[in-house]
Specification:
Blueprint lengths: L1 H4 L4 H8 L3 H8 L3 H10 L11 H10 L4 H13 L1
Length: 80
């Protein structure tokens, strides 16, 4: 909302924040009150991976911090 208040365009915001135009347009159309109301309902994002954090970091370290290897390991663990 700060960038909007500064008069930045939707395109500028999209490029600056690496967020899609559709998402920027959704928030850009909101009033400050609507934005605050929306975030009051859920002020923190859902942290679905919290319970796996220790395991993820362990696998990440053991695989020399290579994300593709970590992804494969967790894909095997979670889906097989």
């Amino acid at each position: 909302m700060e960038l909007k208040r500064m008069g930045k365009t939707r395109r500028y915001i999209s490029m600056k924040l690496w967020v899609g135009n559709k998402t920027v347009s959704k928030y850009y159309a909101m009033s400050d009150e609507e934005y605050r109301s929306m975030h009051a309902a859920s002020p923190y994002p859902v942290k679905v991976f919290d319970e796996y954090e220790e395991m993820i970091m362990d696998v990440y370290r053991r695989n020399n911090f290579k994300s593709n290897l970590v992804y494969r390991r967790f894909k095997e663990y979670l889906f097989h």
